[in-house]
Design a protein that fits this description.
This protein is mainly α and 125 residues long. Helix content is 66%, strand content 0%. The chain has two domains: 31 residues, no CATH class; 69 residues, DnaJ domain (Helix Hairpins, Orthogonal Bundle). The longest helix is centred in the C-terminal third of the chain and has 27 residues. The model has no long low-confidence stretch (mean pLDDT 82).
Length: 125
């Protein structure tokens, strides 16, 4: 669904600023360009998320994400998870550049996947 409010607000703003119907027309044109993303840069497509490697390397990968060994306690893993999520959570970089937001989202997915993998391994053990 396309936006419509840019044209409406542009028309009103143009008319009020220039106090002439031509100002409304100029505002309508600017609003049309805004609604159709003429002012935004084209964003490159996102890279696919990195899948964890299969087998036992999956376990090593999960522990390496947190920077702890396989002999770490549950409390240490929870602390590492909270520390990394506080650092890389996408809401923390909401106002940053799109590239940084994409990296934070990818890192948060990786952290969550590693945490879920370790939790699953420890439940089954």
């Amino acid at each position: 669904m396309r936006r419509w409010y840019g044209q409406f607000l542009g028309f009103i703003a143009g008319w009020l600023l220039l106090r002439h119907p031509v100002g409304g027309f100029i505002g309508l044109l600017v609003g049309y360009l805004f609604d159709h993303d003429a002012f935004s840069r084209r964003r490159p497509p996102r890279p696919p998320p990195a899948d964890p490697p299969p087998g036992d390397a999956d376990v090593d990968w999960a522990y390496r994400v947190f920077g702890v060994g396989a002999d770490a306690s549950d409390a240490e893993i929870d602390r590492a998870y909270r520390r990394l999520m506080a650092q890389y959570h996408p809401d923390r970089v909401a106002g940053a550049a799109p590239e940084l937001r994409a990296l934070a989202e990818q890192k948060a997915r990786e952290i969550n996947a590693a945490y879920d993998r370790i939790r699953k391994l420890r439940r089954n053990a």
